[in-house]
Amino acid sequence: MAAVTHHPFLSSKLLQTTKPNPIRIGPTAVRMSLQETAPSLAVVGVTGAVGQEFLSVLSDRDFPFRSIKMLASKRSSGKRLTFQGCDYTVEELTADSFDGVDIALFSAGGSISKEFGPVAVERGTIVVDNSSAFRMEEKVPLVIPEVNPEAMDGIKLGTGKGALIANPNCSTIICLMAATPLHQRAKVQRMVVSTYQAASGAGAAAMEELELQTREVLEGKSPTCKIFKQQYAFNLFSHNAPVLSNGYNEEEMKLVKETRKIWNDKNVKVTATCIRVPVMRAHAESINLQFENPLDEDTARNILKNAPGVVVIDDRASNLFPTPLEVSNKDDVAVGRIRCDVSQEGNHGLEIFVCGDQIRKGAALNAVQIAEMLL
């Protein structure tokens, strides 16, 4: 199919786009995908930005499956899309959609997850949910495979028993990919996070509006503000999540609560400030860490260089550090600006700057990695 998107990072057009990758359509990949012993899959919310990224990641990683259902709302049912050289028709999501489905990847919003997640589990499906619907439920694992794979102990394919597994918030995933290896060495007592979050975190429509606003402002026109209440292009503002009674917004409290659950540490102190910035794709975060045990910056840099899913970009001489543009469409979380916190004594504090693709590792990739752990 011909690519129609005119912006390199605009994932909302992935329905009409196929990436050149011979592995996806070659005979080896097809044989792997259709092997009878592989699980049956369903992608819920397949026409959205993350749903489309699910398909991209499944192809990139040659995830084995014997069948796959493309599920979405009634509005999207009947649409045709191509995946790994085969044509599929998008089906309307119903309670019967999960009959015979082993693994379902959900990215259709919290209300859909709450309605259909338990239904899928009752049918024996293992659900990997990208929404916030179940993250803080005590019996639902909240998983970053590189960080806390043990949280999935006891969940197995082939038992006929369904289960719910929650994908953490994108900001939490990107943060903890870098902070956890350091926490494991020196134990984080307090973490202060400031985020710089891209339009991708608000979905395909927000990405399109940022592009539209940019053109409008450059042409001297009033910007279209449908997704956000204020101008996004050439501006930044507090994250659009609802503000709670304590003055924090929901996005900030997700970082606080989810970190404690993932690290299994109710005492770790976490505070966050989350900001929307006019970047198309990939979030950035400034992270300040206070440790129980001393950790110097050279040791920290070596730890991060050897951490799975992390790449270090920390060239002080050239002033080159991670940027959202560099990590867009990439799997790894990039870390740089690794330096001692001069406000703390005895190597008990560290500053780092991280960037990660919100749609990729912050959503779809993490979910597919969870599914891979089930194989």
UniProtKB/TrEMBL annotation:
Pathway: Amino-acid biosynthesis; L-threonine biosynthesis; L-threonine from L-aspartate: step 2/5; Amino-acid biosynthesis; L-methionine biosynthesis via de novo pathway; L-homoserine from L-aspartate: step 2/3. Residues 40-155 form the Semialdehyde dehydrogenase NAD-binding domain. It is an enzyme of class 1 (oxidoreductase). GO terms for molecular function: aspartate-semialdehyde dehydrogenase activity; NAD binding; NADP binding; protein dimerization activity. InterPro entries: Asp_semialdehyde_DH (IPR012080), Asp_semialdehyde_DH_beta (IPR005986), Semialdehyde_DH_NAD-bd (IPR000534), Semialdhyde_DH_dimer_dom (IPR012280). Its EC number is 1.2.1.11. It comes from the Eukaryota. The keyword Amino-acid biosynthesis applies. Keywords: Amino-acid biosynthesis, Diaminopimelate biosynthesis, Lysine biosynthesis, Methionine biosynthesis, NADP, Oxidoreductase, Threonine biosynthesis. GO terms for biological process: diaminopimelate biosynthetic process; isoleucine biosynthetic process; lysine biosynthetic process via diaminopimelate; methionine biosynthetic process; threonine biosynthetic process. Pfam families: Semialdhyde_dh (PF01118), Semialdhyde_dhC (PF02774). The keyword Translocase does not apply. It catalyses: L-aspartate 4-semialdehyde + phosphate + NADP(+) = 4-phospho-L-aspartate + NADPH + H(+). PANTHER family: ASPARTATE-SEMIALDEHYDE DEHYDROGENASE, DEHYDROGENASE, PUTATIVE-RELATED. Homodimer. This is aspartate-semialdehyde dehydrogenase. The lineage of its organism: Eukaryota, Viridiplantae, Streptophyta, Embryophyta, Tracheophyta.
